[in-house]
Every structure is written in C-alpha cells, then in structure tokens.
Design goal:
Residues 341-387 are annotated as: Disordered. The chain is α+β, with helices and mostly antiparallel strands. It has helices at 2-26, 32-37, 43-51, 54-60, 71-78, 84-92, 102-106, 118-122, 179-182, 193-198, 203-209, 213-221, 233-245, 248-256, 266-271, 368-382, 386-409, and strands at residues 64-68, 95-96, 112-116, 131-136, 142-145, 154-163, 167-172, 226-231, 259-260, 274-276, 289-294, 297-301, 306-316, 319-324. Bound molecules: 2-acetamido-2-deoxy-beta-D-glucopyranose (6 copies). One 2-acetamido-2-deoxy-beta-D-glucopyranose binds next to loops.
Length: 410
C-alpha cells in the first residue's frame, strides 16, 4: 500500500515534469513577418517592421496588438522622409502592449481605455506620449486617439489575424500622429564609427579606414545592421606593410572583410558556430570566415589566421563593434605559404593549427583533422541548442515514466 502510494506520487510528479517539458517546446511562437506576408496590402508596414527590427521585438512578446496601416495609408508617413530611428518610433507607437481582439475592442469597460505602446516601453517617449486612447464610438466604431483632448486620429477597420491571447493584428485607418515619435532621435545612424574605434584601441584600423571607400560601405550598412571586428593597434600596425603592398581593390576588400552586414550580438556569436559572409563578399569571391566558440572565447577563423574577440565597443541593435587580437587575412588575398599573421601572438593560442573548417575539401594533411575535430564537436553541443536539450529531456522523462508505470502495475 505504502509502496503503491509512493509510486502513484512518482507518476504524478513525472507527468507534471513531462508537461513542463512539453509546453515550451511544442509551442509555436508567432511570426509577424509571416502573418503579414499573407496580405500584400500591408507589405510596406511589414517591410518596415523588418528593417527596424521591431519584428523581432513583436515575436518575442505575447499579449500584444499590432495596429497595421495599408500601403496607401503608409505613403503619408514615407513622404516625410524620416530617419529610420524615427520610423521605428512611429511604428512602435502602433504596437500595443495588451491583447485587443476585435471583440475586446468593441467591449471596452466604460467605453475607453488607455493602452501603453512599445514606444512607451522604449523609454524614448516623453511623459505619457507613448499611450494610445482607445474609445468605443457610436455606430459600432472604435476610435484611436493620441492626445488627451479626445480627438480621434484613426479608426478600427478590421481584424487581420488573431492568436488569442498572444497576438492580435488589426488594421486601422491611418498612421497615428505623434510629434514625439517622429522627432529625430540621436540613433546609431549618427554614430561616428571611426571616432568610436579610435577612442577604444583600434586607432590604426580606424585611421586606415578614414576616407576610404570601405568607410562608406561601413556607414551605409549601420541602419540595416552591422557588426565590425576591429583589430587592435599592435596587430594592425604590424600588418600595415602588407596592407600597403595590396592593390587599391585589395585594400578595400581586406578592410570590408572586417565587417558583417548583420547585427550579431555577442550572445548570438557565442551560441552560433558557422561560416559568415562579410562586406567584402561578392559572388564567387567568398571572403567569408568561420565563427567558432572555444570555451568562453569566440574565435574567427580564416584558413590563414585565427583571431579572438577581446572586447566590445558597442553591442546594441543595429550595431556591434568588437575588438579582435589579429588582422583577419582572407584566403582570397593571402597565400597559404605566407608566414603566420604578424600578430603579438598570445601564447595560449599559438599551437592551434589555423586551418580547416572554412575551406572545401581542403588538401589538409590527415594529421591535423583528428587534432581539430575533438574540440569542434563539444563546442557545438554546449551551444545554446534548446531543441536538442528538450528532445533529450523528453526522452529521459519518458523513460522515467515507463519505469514508474512498470513499478505501479507490478
Ligand atoms: C502563445 O505563445 C506561447 C509562448 O510562445 C506559446 O506557448 C503558445 O502556444 C502560443 N499560443 C498559441 C495559440 O499559439
Ligand atoms: C519569420 O518569418 C520570416 C518569413 O517567413 C522568416 O524570414 C523569419 O526568419 C522568421 N522569423 C523567425 C524568428 O522565425
Ligand atoms: C468604470 O467606471 C466605474 C464608475 O465610474 C469605475 O468605478 C470603474 O473603476 C471604471 N472601470 C475602469 C476599468 O476604468
Ligand atoms: C480618451 O478619449 C475619449 C473620447 O474619445 C475622452 O473622453 C477621454 O477623456 C480620453 N481619455 C484620455 C485619458 O485621454
Ligand atoms: C567621423 O569623424 C571624423 C573626424 O574625427 C571625420 O573625419 C569623419 O568624416 C566622420 N565620419 C562620419 C561618417 O561622419
Ligand atoms: C609585397 O609584394 C611583393 C610582390 O608581390 C612581395 O615580393 C613582397 O614580399 C611583399 N611585401 C610584403 C611586406 O608583403
């Protein structure tokens, strides 16, 4: 009896753990880009959500309402030629931090509600300018106002998609005006890259970049997402003779090789190994390198050199700048016979072969592959891989469950 009771309790405990395991894993998070892709009339809004990276914020949250405006309604906003940061603020003003399905909109308690928006949540909204006033109006209309005086700026048109109570996508008649959101904010697009790098240990790299075509390439990519790996002063100083020896096109390529046209936070880099294209990538000229985690370190491997991230200058969407201890040498420009990178080689790294991973079936000597692979695989596994962990967890629990059941029925 006592045994049987204990067994029953175990089964219950195990069942509960199974549920805890299954819930977050079986869940399909919403994807606003995919939802709106079904409606061509909202393509402008959808595109802007992507380039402002607001789509990521929306996908991360639940209990949220996105008030979209048709392409025709968006032309008014586009005509203002606002900087991307202001557009981001304007759009974030259309993301309500509560779930308003069509039904709830028409049945607001006391007829009016003040909804906080994502603009309010950014902290960029002065006072209460980040709130939207929703009011049930005569004749079944729902009004959206941005001022305290009860002015109705836009009205509810229709429900576009509802996933209760995660996300509601509704169409409203026009963009909600907000002088606060439209005000130009000092954003990353005004960041002076070369100044920032100069002041933080990458003076030589920054000075080399200054006034070059590569500088323009970097600047042009900030808005849409940019990650720069800037070599420290000692490393780049030693590299200068080789740099000066390159053709103008080669110089531009090697500089652009240190930039990646997507924003990659340090945590993203730490949880993802793989090949990465760069600003120098141009069709057949791959100019890529491999990101590989090595314990706490993130290393960047070309077939010619392995550099390590040594510091962070900025890591804030859409811009990240990291310092690295060596100049990245693309195989497209530097022959393998070249002596190893003229860097102040940190002793710990030195014995590692800086080959493999990137190149296609490389004529690598069989001797160096066994040496490399053992440290490659564990790194993959410790990476933040929820899928794999969840799967193992379920299996483990399922095993526990069957053992308990066997015990119970014996
Ligand atoms: C709502 O989001 C949660 C968390 O992402 C998820 O577990 C759940 O399945 C979602 N609900 C629906 C109906 O998609
Ligand atoms: C959302 O969907 C778009 C288009 O299908 C896709 O490109 C994007 O990677 C998806 N985002 C996430 C977080 O899955
Ligand atoms: C609705 O109005 C009543 C009476 O004025 C008030 O007591 C109540 O707090 C209001 N409810 C909300 C949600 O504002
Ligand atoms: C919201 O708008 C209604 C009328 O549209 C108005 O009566 C109410 O005072 C407004 N509430 C706030 C807090 O602005
Ligand atoms: C950054 O500042 C330097 C001077 O410190 C200047 O020469 C350069 O043009 C600036 N770059 C941009 C993009 O404004
Ligand atoms: C510069 O290029 C020449 C010819 O390709 C080569 O012989 C020389 O070693 C190079 N110098 C440096 C510093 O790379």
């Amino acid at each position: 009896m006592q045994l049987r009771l204990t067994a029953t309790v175990s089964v219950v405990v195990v069942l509960l753990s199974v549920m805890v395991f299954l819930l977050p894993n079986s869940a399909e998070a919403h994807n606003i880009t995919r939802i709106l892709a079904k409606y061509p009339e909202f393509s402008t809004f959808n595109h802007l959500l992507t380039v402002t990276h607001l789509a990521d914020d929306i996908n991360r949250r639940t209990t949220i309402t996105v008030c979209v405006v048709s392409n025709a309604g968006m032309s008014e906003l586009l005509a203002k030629h606002l900087p991307i940061n202001s557009i981001k603020n304007v759009l974030s003003f259309h993301i309500l931090l509560d779930y308003f399905g069509a039904k709830k909109l028409h049945q607001i308690t006391n007829g009016t509600a003040l909804a906080a928006t994502m603009f309010q949540a950014t902290g960029d909204a002065p006072g209460s300018s980040g709130f939207v006033n929703i009011t049930d109006l005569r004749g079944g209309k729902v009004g959206f106002g941005t001022k305290d005086d009860g002015t109705v700026d836009a009205t509810f048109v229709k429900s576009v998609d509802e996933i209760p109570y995660n996300i509601s996508v509704i169409q409203i008649s026009s963009i909600l005006p907000s002088s606060e959101a439209e005000a130009p904010t000092p954003g990353p697009s005004q960041t002076n890259l070369t100044d920032l790098m100069s002041a933080h240990g990458c003076k030589v790299f920054a000075e080399t970049l200054l006034g070059s075509d590569a500088e323009k390439t970097f600047d042009d990519n900030i808005e849409s997402g940019l990650t720069i790996f800037c070599p420290g002063d000692d490393a780049f100083k030693n590299f200068l003779p080789k740099y000066k020896n390159l053709s103008a096109a080669g110089q531009q390529s090697v500089l652009e090789y240190h930039g990646v046209p997507v924003y990659q936070s340090l945590s993203t880099l730490k949880s993802n190994n793989g090949v990465m294209n760069t600003l120098a990538t141009d069709g057949a000229n791959k100019y890529d390198f491999t990101v590989q985690n090595d314990g706490e370190d993130v290393t960047l491997k070309t077939t010619r050199v392995t550099a390590k991230i040594t510091g962070t200058l900025i890591d804030e969407q859409p811009l990240a700048i990291f310092t690295i201890d060596k100049v990245l040498l693309p195989k497209e420009l530097f022959k393998a016979t070249l002596t190893p990178a003229p860097a102040p080689a940190p002793v710990a790294d030195a014995p590692k072969p800086s080959k493999k991973h990137n190149s296609p079936p490389a004529p690598a000597s069989p001797a160096d592959s066994p040496a490399d692979s053992p440290d490659g695989d564990p790194a993959d596994q410790t990476a933040d891989n929820n899928g794999a962990v969840g799967f193992n967890g379920e299996r483990f629990v399922a095993l526990g469950l069957s053992l308990c059941l066997a015990f119970f029925f014996s």
